[in-house]
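BUG: 3D viewer hangs when loading the predicted structure for this chain

Environment: internal workstation, default settings.
Expected: structure renders.
Actual: progress bar stalls at 90%.

Input used:
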Amino acid sequence: MWIAIVTAIALLLVGACALVIYHDTHNFVVREYEFTSGKLKRDITFVLLTDLHGYVFGNNNDKLIEKIYDINPDYILSCGDMFTARYIDGKVHTEAGLHVLKSLAGKFPVYLSNGNHEEKIKSYTKEFGNLFDRYKSDLVRAGVHYLENESEEIPKDNIRISGLELPLSFFQKIVKKKMVPEDITGRIGEKKAVHSDKFQILIAHNPQYFEEYARWGADLTVSGHVHGGIIRLPILGGVISPAIALFPKYDGGKYTIDDSTMVLSRGLGTHTINVRMFNPGEVSVIKVRGTKDVTRS
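Structure tokens produced before the viewer hung:
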């Protein structure tokens, strides 16, 4: 009798977990993050997209694109990893990520920097040929601002956006590589006094180095990579990171160091471990309130 009851409960729990995993792996939610900056003259809304890894929500990602259209942000930021750098059926499937970014670039200003998967196809030309060049060119033709260790200014909103492209060694497993200031300044320069009054956004895929990004001078860092920890547990948070770190310090959400804020998206897709549990995909909406004029145009 008791064995039958325990077995039934166990089967119910397994079934419930399977349903949660299926739901969270195939669906996304919208999460909002908000803070205030005196450097902005008006309220500005950003949408952050990262770690799609080729996933498709609805027909040709129409659910994802339509949701972003409904949000109607001022700007879209992407930390990359919009595809998985792996051959499946003889090709690397970049189509889903390309379609999302190109569709959005027709309506919104889109700013993109590389994740480790874009960096992989860029670095390993023997394996991937000129795939990265073709991928980037396709996006640039569509109007995407592709920032590879570059910065662009948006004078009307007093914004400066920098895209930090880190070598793959900064994404190594288990042991975190030490970052020195030159690892940032040698790529995107110093945050000079001439830029100190601008709202500085740093697109940096790996959140492990938030302390270094804050010291560099980022007002807002946007990151991804960790996938929310794949499985999330109450109180403990995300269970494991792509670096094989258990219960990573930065797993998803909003973090602050002094006047610097990082919004770490839990991402949209998966790869290798194709599981999300208590952790659906995320479209991050970042609302930065301006203190000089709070009337959003």
